[in-house]
Amino acid sequence: MKKNIGRLGENQYDLVIVGGGIHGAVLTLAAAKAGYRVALLEKDDFGHSTSANSLKIIHGGIRYLQHGDFKRMRESIASRRSMMAFAPHLVKPLACLMPTYGHGIKGREMMRLAFAVYDLVAFDRNRAIPPENRLPGGTAISAEEVKWVVPGIKENGLTGGAIWYDAIAGNTERLVLEYVLEAARYGADVANYAEVTAVEKDGARVSGVLVRDMSTDRTIRVKSRAVVNAAGPWLERLAGDRLPRAGNWATAINVVVKKRLFRKYAVGLEGYTDFTDRDALIKRGKRLFFFVPWQENYTMIGTTYKPYRGAVDDFSLQRQDIQEVIDDINKIYPAAGLTMGDVTFCHGGLLPMTEADENQADSVQLDKSSQIIADGSAHGTNGLFSIKGVKYTTAPDIAEKMVKLLQDENHLGQRTPGSYTAASPQRLDHGPTIKQLGREYPEIKAHLKRHYGARWRAVFAVLVQNGGAKNGESYWLSEEPPLLAAEVLYFIHEEMASTLADVVFRRSSLGSAECPDTSTLALLADFMGRELSWTGEERERQIAGVLQVFAPLYEKGGT
Ligand SMILES: Cc1cc2nc3c(=O)[nH]c(=O)nc-3n(C[C@H](O)[C@H](O)[C@H](O)COP(=O)(O)OP(=O)(O)OC[C@H]3O[C@@H](n4cnc5c(N)ncnc54)[C@H](O)[C@@H]3O)c2cc1C
What we know:
The protein is α+β, with helices and mostly antiparallel strands and 559 residues long. The chain has 17 helices and 20 strands. The strands form three sheets. Strands 3, 4, 5, 6, 11, 12, 13, 14, 15 and 16 form a ten-stranded mixed sheet that branches. Strands 1, 2, 7, 8, 9, 10, 17 and 18 form an eight-stranded mixed sheet that branches. The chain has a two-stranded antiparallel sheet with strand order 19-20.
């Protein structure tokens, strides 16, 4: 996958997609597979924004039982299945526990009934899923077992626990990238650090976009018959304020702590403030907080919401925001006893909300479903569409609907699928390198398979082509989390990584849970600097860019 700005200026596209978050990425693949000539343009790096900031749960929509919304449940189940089938190495089963209290609406019997209904609705949840990733049906455990899983849980009225299975994308950033890579293999032209500054029209009809290549500051015109605006919180920039509920965004925050709080399961615990889900038929009266075990040693906890009234570009998490989340968690589960010193990372993003009462603590009502807003109705322009996405999980469902809409004769019409499929990569003789790697080979292979799934051979080919790609005497740039020198070459030359942050946060897992140590950062910056001809000043700027992400955690006064 190569960035080729020149080619973007030469081609006539059927479709330009603005925004390389999960919605833009999944749609690019779906449209390319459907035979359209597609370009994906991302102003920063793929998956850097809201899509990197999720709790990483790929929801099967069990919560929509409360709403009696079977249509939304089926959409979530199909989307979850689609992601699990697309990237089985990244999207894995997640066993979840909800403690039950009494015998009413929050009781064990009610939960068992709910899960039985859910399992019926989700009868086809494992279709085309590899056996090791299949999701079992819901079940129940005793109060004693719940106390073992959640030590220190409120025991008064505890009757047991309901267990259900969802999925988790261990690395949401890489999952976005996997869709982009696969779309490029299907012939899509993709570019990061390429900002769409305007949608151009010929009369009332879209004719293309203006794109600023951020690496050269050059602006080019890209011709296209249709444009899909999947710009996340920047949606209104190109669509204007004619979208429904323009300017209504909520901050959503999670924290990552270096502690395994609970055994065996992800656990949902009720918040302590009142919350009314306006659309629910069965109202639980509180929002649920999820404690998700992540990687070997961490727990991700969230999500809290509050209205956001600032400019989108000004959004950043402050130390105070994180402290508020910690305080909330300690009230919900006092046994956690969290302090700022336990927090190693935080996720924050903006999501579309319907309404919020500024005078009430937990009042944000998020938009219930992701939406496609078609041309003419909201934009007054033919060929311009917007995707307002509220869930990472349902991006495949939205992409499928978007492609169906484009296939309508009034828009792009049908194409022959697979028209632009790229050539297969050349075959290499891996034998000599395997011999050279000796005892390290199985370890390297296992690491690459875990991280890249079926694509692992492409990364291994970089080892082969570069005679083992070494950092001094070692193949590894970092042993924990593992990162090979060859992977970094692959990121730069095949995955469009051009900054240290691209590699640390979105290509590898180096900085996904906590700040990498300074010696690893320095080693990586030196390695990338040699490959990309960074000056000493540029190297420092790149390191500062990574450290900046952790700044709210380490401000003065921190523990
Ligand atoms: C704290 C938190 C927890 C969450 N937890 C979950 C969860 O557990 N499960 C779940 O399913 N969902 C979850 N979500 C929701 C989910 O993360 C989002 O709905 C989803 O990631 C939105 O994706 P997107 O592609 O629409 O937007 P984004 O990921 O924001 O992507 C939009 C992209 O457009 C680019 N862009 C903007 N303007 C331009 C332009 N002019 N030119 C080029 N590019 C442009 C941006 O740089 C950005 O990369 C959570 C969200 C948050 C914040």
